[in-house]
């Protein structure tokens, strides 16, 4: 988060690519000389993983700050889109190269890791910087130029000067509070509420079985009676990718809450049925095996539709004044839950320990139902609001179920109506069900 704040989004992307390349070089050269050095390989893998950690903070924030409120869901979904595409390509390359009896069996998939960071480094200079970050740093002329590059093509009436001026009003209002961007501010008031939303949505995604399915899908499929697992896995990954593509239009049309709630409920039902079949049949018949596979495919589809919403909700819940901090903490907890599940699951499932086997799906299914309830009561509908409008709604304590009932005046259809105690006279907020427009 410090790198993201100090260098800006664009330069941070280039640094992330450079760190990744250093890690991959160390990995590839760990076999030079004819004898593999496992310690060197782990060191390279660790550095490459640092680049992944940088990316989860930088990329979603950049995408959210360079998109309009109406298209933010589409933009942030690109992050999840590329991730899953990488998983599919990597799985196919690993499977194909595994048949080789030479060093190419591992050098090929390791070496292909160079492609993505090289693209990041080469493309970063051509990207516009985040206008909000530039305004925060006092570089207003650059901010107007970046805003024009980003939004002028979407509407001929876009006024970059007004857009930047209104962002500046919001930032000045934030800076009027000396503790607005402090760590302590995250422990109370609206920022605590927003932090809990971001942490909760990241953690509950993992608790629904995401990290388990990524790490131990082979074990789970085997426990349900599947023998030829690789075609099933590739089919699941491909289907998941197709489902993730819905993030480019569903969140901005149907909204965030309906998708999060419905997909969580569906995931809970499918995994509960799969685990119930495991309980019912110690030696499952073909029909039970086929039913389990079909239900796992349905689970993967539903979870794929939900996945982009996790990142969208995380960046939308992060306040402008503490955006990097909230994003970093949420990702920290999300990865922490993933690490915990990945570490504990083998013991819960193993015959000599927890001996749950395929019944472990009951745990993930239960967390899916918890997720649906948590979203209903905690996560407000943030579709269509600009970042500054969300700041206003949270700062004024608007209840979760009341977000959708508010409208903001807008300028030229694209710019932002900014509200603060000092500038409320500049715009009008009204509740649709209580007041006349």
Automatic annotation (TrEMBL):
How does this chain sit within the bilayer?
Answer: Multi-pass membrane protein
Boundaries of every Major facilitator superfamily (MFS) profile domain copy: 1-383
Q: Does the keyword field hold Transmembrane?
A: yes
Query: Per the UniProt record, which residue ranges are transmembrane?
Result: 12-34, 46-63, 78-98, 105-127, 229-247, 259-281, 293-314, 326-348, 360-379
**UniProt KW Cytoplasm keyword:** no
Q: Which InterPro entries match?
A: MFS_dom, MFS_sugar_transport-like, MFS_Sugar_Transporters, MFS_trans_sf
Q: Which Gene3D superfamilies match?
A: MFS general substrate transporter like domains
What's a GO cellular component annotated to this UniProt protein?
Answer: membrane
Identify its protein family.
Belongs to the major facilitator superfamily. Sugar transporter (TC 2.A.1.1) family.
Q: What is this protein called?
A: General substrate transporter
Compartments in which it is found: Membrane
Q: Which UniProt keywords apply?
A: Membrane, Transmembrane, Transmembrane helix
> Which organism was this protein described from?
Didymella exigua CBS 183.55
One short Pfam name that applies is Sugar_tr
Q: What are the GO MF terms of this UniProt record?
A: carbohydrate:proton symporter activity
